[in-house]
Specification:
With 484 residues, the chain is mainly alpha-helical. The protein folds into 2 domains: 2-356, no CATH class; 364-478, no CATH class. Helix content is 68%, strand content 4%. The protein has 23 helices and 5 strands. The protein has a 5-stranded mixed β-sheet with strand order 2-1-3-5-4. A hairpin with a 4-residue loop joins β4 (467-470) and β5. α9 runs antiparallel to α10. 36% of the residues are buried.
Length: 484
């Protein structure tokens, strides 16, 4: 009797149980790294820490932050939003820890709620499942793409209110553009394409004209926002779309397409099938246009095309959910449901495997070494990391020092060949290059990754008379200049 009662209760509340169960799994997945590692994963935590701190310090003094040129091209909306919290006592490292995990979960949940209202509860529930299985979504989380995920949240809200013909679309559309260049570009191109398709037939419609005005307002706000750094933030990247294509285009810090085809091909195929299935019904809606725009950047290898894999996968999630819900309800549903379950289980296995591939490339011991550096150097010293991974940690945890690294932060202004001569060349090569750096006192910072990568090849470099080893710190002070 009790068993029958429980079974009956579970059948009546299957929606609630499914949501709770999936939320537990989603929370477990995106809090896994906090439990497993003692540092944030990925390449970007240091840059975000630097910007969070600089904007919060500026807020305390009611001024604009003094940023290095490279940092001025970063859209400021995220840092303006977070700066009051940090200025009033929220630890900045929380934004690199549990708040970041919550942000990723909140984005997925908001996405599922929007499509549950649009397509039904079943689609919303399946979207939670697919977000749990998505490899690209976890990769973006592991690399801490803060701006991207916040911009995606603003973008789906803007699309939602756009379909509702609500003026809230203007606010969230502007926030999308002001938070992340790439996601803002997808948003703008989706709206422009939607508008171009409809303008011949609907221009006389008063509602269409109001939407056109709303688009213009969003564009104007974005223009004003980026105007102070127009060349670095907009014009230079925009030209690169046309000038840098194929193998000449920088791919961006994300795995190649065949990686996601191999390990996430099941989810990708279902998403594309769902997108094709809904293409006619959607009638060029912004939801149908977003993955199409992302795919063009990927197919034609336009600038930073690999970074578009995340958004492409993200915007296919609802169509994959729609396809699965549709197939689940087919007449010959037993065999179809078995196939769906098998595919989900296989994709889940691959997703877990790829989640576990992530590991730290930097240790807590090395981070503590960075934190201790101020006691060994002058207050006005400049520090250059000898490889670019630790350079980002150096920047984030010593934000008041002038720091740099190979190819990063405009310091030093050396190209690849210069670095090759500096590390593997002669003493005279090193003197020549060091003489081009005006900052003094000047230190170079080594790391475990640096020693592991170069091995015995850097013995001559480390023994050079230009450097003096700082005892107790991973530093080499420059003691020579161009007069040698």
């Amino acid at each position: 009797m009790n068993v029958d009662f429980i079974w009956h209760w579970m059948r009546r509340r299957w929606v609630l149980l499914a949501i709770v169960g999936l939320l537990i799994l989603v929370v477990s997945k995106f809090f896994y790294s906090l439990w497993r590692f003692d540092l944030p994963l990925g390449y970007d935590p240091g840059m975000y820490r630097y910007l969070f701190i600089k904007y919060s310090e500026a807020l305390r003094s009611f001024s604009l932050p003094e940023l290095r040129p490279w940092a001025q091209e970063y859209p400021a909306a995220l840092y303006i939003i977070t700066s009051p919290f940090i200025a009033f006592g929220v630890p900045v490292d929380w934004f690199l820890g549990w708040i970041w995990s919550v942000m990723t979960i909140a984005l997925l949940c908001a996405y599922a709620v929007i499509f549950a209202k649009r397509e039904g509860k079943a689609v919303g529930i399946v979207m939670l499942l697919l977000g749990l299985l998505s490899i690209a979504y976890f990769d973006g989380f592991a690399q801490m793409y803060w701006k991207t995920y916040v911009a995606l949240l603003f973008m789906i809200l803007a699309f939602h209110f756009f379909e509702k013909k609500s003026p809230w679309m203007v606010l969230f559309g502007a926030l999308t553009i002001m938070t992340h260049n790439q996601t803002g570009l997808i948003f703008a191109l989706a709206l422009i394409t939607w508008w171009i398709v409809r303008v011949p037939k609907q221009w006389r419609d008063p509602l269409f004209r109001k939407l056109t005005l709303a688009f213009a307002v969003v564009a104007l706000l974005g223009f004003i926002w980026y105007l102070p750094n127009w060349e670095r933030v907009f014009w230079s990247p925009f030209k690169s779309i046309f000038l840098l294509r194929g193998d000449a285009a920088p791919g961006g810090h994300f795995p190649p397409a065949n990686f996601y085809i191999k390990h996430g091909g099941i989810l990708l195929a279902i998403g594309i099938a769902g997108w094709l299935m809904r293409f006619r019904k959607e009638k060029n809606s912004v939801w149908i246009l977003a993955p199409l725009i992302c795919s063009l950047f990927i197919i034609f290898k336009l600038v930073f095309y690999r970074r578009f894999y995340l958004q492409f996968d993200f915007f296919l999630l609802p169509f994959a959910a729609i396809a699965l819900v549709h197939l689940w309800g087919k007449k010959k549903r037993n065999i179809i449901r078995i196939i769906i379950v098998v595919l989900i289980v296989v994709q889940a296995g691959m997703s877990v495997t790829q989640m576990l591939r992530w590991d730290l490339k930097f240790s807590s011991t090395e981070l503590e070494d960075i934190k201790s550096i101020p006691q060994y150097i002058e207050d006005d010293a400049s520090i250059i990391a000898l490889e670019n991974f630790s350079a980002v940690w150096l920047l984030g945890w010593l934000p008041d020092y002038y720091t740099g690294g190979p190819g990063l932060f405009d310091f030093p202004e050396w190209d690849y060949k210069d670095w090759e001569y500096f590390l593997l060349g002669s003493h005279d090569d090193r003197v020549r290059l060091i003489s081009r750096i005006e900052q003094r006192p000047l230190y170079f910072m080594s790391s475990t990754l640096f020693h592991r990568y170069y091995g015995k090849r850097i013995r001559e470099f480390l023994a050079d008379d230009c450097f003096e080893k700082v005892e107790g710190a991973p530093l080499y002070k420059v003691v020579c200049d161009g007069s040698w």
